[in-house]
Amino acid sequence: MPLLAAYVALRNGPRLLIAALLFGWGGDTFLLFDAEPAFLAGMGSFAAGHVCYLVLFRRYGTRAPRARGVGLVAAYALALIGTVALLWPDLPADMRGPVAGYSLLLTAMAFGATALGPAAAAGGALFLLSDTLIATGVAEWPQLPRPDFAIMLTYIAAQFLLAEGVLSAHQRIGTGTAVSSAERTTTTPSATTSPRAGT
User: The pTM is what?
Assistant: First the structure.
């Protein structure tokens, strides 16, 4: 994540995007420790990153929820309810509340990413998948071969796609602002010239 954050900084990306990536790095670091307090701290760090993403999606998103369709809203809602319901009985009792709350925020972030287009939407969906794989481990479900590899692969791809989606929207808006400023500069003299100037 530090390399991706540096890449965003080199492209003059928004600071809030850098913060989201660094919160993700913090979450990665906490999850290296095999203890419940560290897991909860990692979940909190990731949650802070999701809040950063939600603010970015609201700032740069170009597609209103209604335009994205009721079906898409329903799909994410069903994914959230179904995942939490299935995991709930197998989660440690003291982890159920935090996992459910985090899952709600994660799903909101994944849905919010659809406002930035296909790349960011794919990133949000992959983040959802990656964290669901982690949750199945906490619930002690049977795991895929090399689960850590699958988790990291989907997670890295998710962060990259989310970052690219935000960067593209940020640069598109910046270009539009520059063009508008240039147009105003070009039209200002003719708009303010006195009708008597040619007499």
Answer: 0.83
